[in-house]
Write a structure and sequence with these properties.
The chain has about 170 residues and is α/β, with parallel strands linked by helices. The chain is built from six helices and five strands; from the N terminus they run βαβαβαβαβαα.
Length: about 170
């Protein structure tokens, strides 16, 4: 069985992420989208558990794709899942250069792992998680960011954060 892992922070997941995961699910027997817990990145907009909930919602109709959360090295996740393929989406030449350098490191420490870099759909390449977070913060339309059900869940979770912050005297 050919298994691929698609790791990311998914804070939050976007249509671009879903497109990469859907394409990976079509290429492999199983595609595992993993919310990676990264202590170096700080708190983020959503907790890892919320990001997983949103990711599961976004992938609900993607056959062959699973969503998991993992706190550890990507190489450990690949081993845990029995995956020999690491899939990453690239939106630009800068993304490619960065992901290519990480692929070289992965190859050094996990020689059996193949990294597959998928170029973003040009109609989705401008959508980043940063873009999605800004749109959420300011209450903007999210139809370009996520499908309606996933956007509704993002708004609901973000609304809880705003309410909790207001109740605690934070902005």
């Amino acid at each position: 069985m050919k298994i691929a892992v698609i790791p990311g922070s998914y804070d939050p997941v976007t249509r671009g992420h879903v497109d990469i995961i859907r394409r990976a699910a079509g290429m492999f027997d199983r595609a595992v989208a993993a919310v990676m817990v990264n202590g170096d990145k700080g708190g983020g907009m959503f907790s890892p558990e919320e990001r997983l909930e949103i990711l599961k919602c976004a992938l609900r109709d993607v056959e062959g794709a699973d969503a998991v959360m993992f706190d550890g090295l990507t190489s450990e996740l690949l081993e845990k899942e029995g995956a020999a393929y690491l899939v990453k989406g690239v939106r630009s030449a800068a993304d490619f250069d960065y992901e290519y350098s990480l692929a070289q490191i992965m190859k050094r420490f996990s020689p059996s792992v193949e990294t597959v870099l998928l170029p973003a759909d040009p109609t989705l390449a401008y959508i980043s998680s940063s873009y999605a977070r800004e749109r959420l913060r300011y209450g903007c339309e999210l139809s370009d960011v996520a499908d309606p059900e996933t956007a509704r869940l993002m708004r609901e979770l973000w609304g809880r954060h705003k309410k909790a912050n207001a109740e605690n005297g934070n902005n």
